[in-house]
Structure formats: C-alpha cells, structure tokens
Amino acid sequence: MAPLSEEEDNYVRLALLLKGVTPRAVRTYFDREFPPSSLTSTLSTSHNTLLDLKVKRIINQAQWKLLIPGNGIPDSKSFDVTLMVCLIRNLTSINPPINGFDSLPLPGETTPGSDLARIKYYWNKLAHHDSNTIDSTYFNTAWTDTSNAVGRLGGPTMYQECQELKVKSLDQSNQEIILEIKHSLEEMKELRLIMDNWGKEHSTMTENLRELQSSHSKLTTSHSNLQAEHVEVKRV
C-alpha cells in the first residue's frame, strides 16, 4: 500500500480513536449508570419511554432490536455510542451541556454530560465526512477534545491509549482497517448518488402525477360541460 498523506493519516487515526476507543469510554460510564446485572430490568421498566423514542425515530429499528434482543438479554457491548448516549440522556438525571446534547460543548465544560455530547459530536462528524482526508488543524482540535473526554469518562489508562494511538506507526496491521474505511466511504458515496437519483426520479414522478391530475381535472370538467350541453340539447 502506498504511504498515506498527512491528511489521510489524520483521518485514519481519528477513525481509530472514535470507532475503537471512544465506545469503550462511553460504555465505562454507561455501565456505571446501568449496571449490567440490572440492565434488563431497567430497560423493561422504561419500556414506554423507549417506545416513545422509537415512535419519534430517535431510536431506530436496528437499535430497538439491541434493546429487546431475541434472547431477551440486552448487552451494552452491542450498543454503539449514539444509543448509549441516547439512553443516558433520556433515562438518567444527567445534567446536559449548556447548549444541549446535540451541539459541541464549550471548551470549559467538563461534566460527564458535556463529554458524552463532545464524543457524540465528533462521532457524527466523522460518520458524515465524505472524504478520507482531514486537515491537521481540525484533527488536532478533535483529538484533544476527544481524548480528554475519553480520559474523564474512561480513566487514565484509556487516556494513555489515546496518546499512544496519536503517534504510533500505522503499519501493515492497519492496512485492513484503512481499506475498510476507504471502502465504506465509497459505499456511502454510491448510496448518496442512489438517493440523489431517487430524489430526482421522485420529483419527476411527482410532477408527472400533478400533470395527470391536472389533465384528469380538465377532462372531468370537459365531461361535465358536455353532459350539461347534452341535457340542454335534449330540452330543446
């Protein structure tokens, strides 16, 4: 594999941090709030709240299946960052960041709620990033924000892991991850193209439907007029 550019290297490292380390940090906090031994009963007690979140599409079908698995025993190890943060913010009394859970918290905010929102923010930014490069300014800011949040939520060992990941050599063992990331990006681009084309086709179909409806309306009016004229002719 050809050597990565600095921007590609930034992307891979940040992806490894957000997809490999942050879920474990969030899960460490999650398991303190929802001890694994009582997770099943807690989710069962909160069923109506969870169902309302599903109806509002805050929890999707795939996540719902993780909360209510076939074997009846949910496991936080199968939960992604988005789902864990969702459960924490809706089923606990955690204090939200000043600007809420859906925005990047202010630099001085270091509460658990702020750190969860911070990780969720960068996680979502990466998920919607449409290239395999990240400039160094954004990378350094995101890395500092995220690794500090990881340290506060997951402890010093995880923070040290973040520091080592930032400078370690991305050798042969990372090639599969890099290829998988690039492949995922290509799939995302193809999906967006399909959705764009579907949107255009849908617009065309909608316009055609409107024209058909208009034509039908005109034909109906014409038919009514002809019937009226026919009645008048019969009267004469």
UniProtKB/TrEMBL annotation:
Domain DZIP3-like HEPN residues, every copy: 36-176
Highest taxon listed in the record's lineage: Eukaryota
The protein's name in its UniProt record: DZIP3-like HEPN domain-containing protein
The species this protein was found in: Mytilus edulis (Blue mussel)
